[in-house]
């Protein structure tokens, strides 16, 4: 049932040989939710999925699916008895079997034909049932892999960077399409990726992973606008960090007083995302003068890098995203900030919360 915790992972620990990989990882995925674990290469994402799937043992903690303990570091339910589907990076289809036989593999004979038909329909591959994997495009192969994983009606589907081998355009198309397919099937799924765009396109919940732990899990919107620290802020996108002094109800910055995302009084660093800064030709109240140092057309917008005038407690570079064509490199402009600014812990500025408003 949607809203009920389907998968519960508590204090999970795991190692490869003597090297610890997961060091007390917590994650909850509600039934019917599409969750994404986002983290850099090597942080332990695949290991996490492999433990949930039953291919790798936990050394501590607990993995529970619908109240049933799958692994508590001592006893483990066998992978084939977990009712969990797994789609690896390369799809791993059986090369000598047709598409239909790949999807129907392991299904009870009685409803195999019907279920294969449903799955082909779901992933939009009607008419390709008799082909072999080598006669399919990369995207079609991944759709077959998804259909094969969904065919036995798993309680949970695990996707390990399933779009990594595809080119950029196909990746974008397929991740949106597969998210829609999973939603229409009411599936509960976890996708692991190091690609933030993929996480945004796919997930209801993003869990940011760092060095064997989940450091923050929330909706994409909440994570983007209210990350807990600088590392999480940068994992979700570009960020402008400013020094701020706490004032009643506001943070005083080089851009003047800005409202905060929380009702905390905050002395330290605050974050503004690039779309919260605006370039104007004329100075105005609380504007900061800056010189355009670089710009990049990205199709949907322009990314502009600017060097603010020194001596204002600002970073060397600020980043602005704008729909309008940017001024030439070297042009002096004035920057205006739009709140709310978000208080952020950073390594250099472990900022202090002064008081929390009642
Ligand atoms: N079979 C293995 N034997 C020994 N060490 C391993 C093994 N598999 C993974 N590791 C190590 O465990 C750590 C986590 O690996 P894992 O594959 O889980 O990370 P990941 O976040 O999925 O990385 P990527 O995004 O590159 O796939 C890495 O340091 C890796 O080198």
UniProtKB/TrEMBL annotation:
Protein keywords: ATP-binding, Cell membrane, Ion transport, Iron, Iron transport, Membrane, Nucleotide-binding, Transport
Gene Ontology annotations for the cellular component aspect, listed alphabetically: ATP-binding cassette (ABC) transporter complex
Annotated GO MF terms: ABC-type ferric iron transporter activity; ABC-type quaternary ammonium compound transporting activity; ATP binding; ATP hydrolysis activity
SUPFAM superfamilies for the chain: MOP-like, P-loop containing nucleoside triphosphate hydrolases
This protein's record includes keyword Ion transport: yes
InterPro entries reported in the protein's UniProt record: AAA+_ATPase (IPR003593), ABC_SmlMolc_Importer (IPR050093), ABC_transporter-like_ATP-bd (IPR003439), ABC_transporter-like_CS (IPR017871), ABC_transpr_FbpC (IPR015853), Mo/tungstate-bd_C_term_dom (IPR008995), P-loop_NTPase (IPR027417), Transp-assoc_OB_typ2 (IPR013611)
Source organism, top-level taxon: Bacteria
Domain ABC transporter span(s) in chain numbering: 7-236
Region (Disordered): 339-358
Top EC class, one word: translocase
UniProt-listed Enzyme Commission number(s): 7.6.2.9
Record's protein name: ABC-type quaternary amine transporter
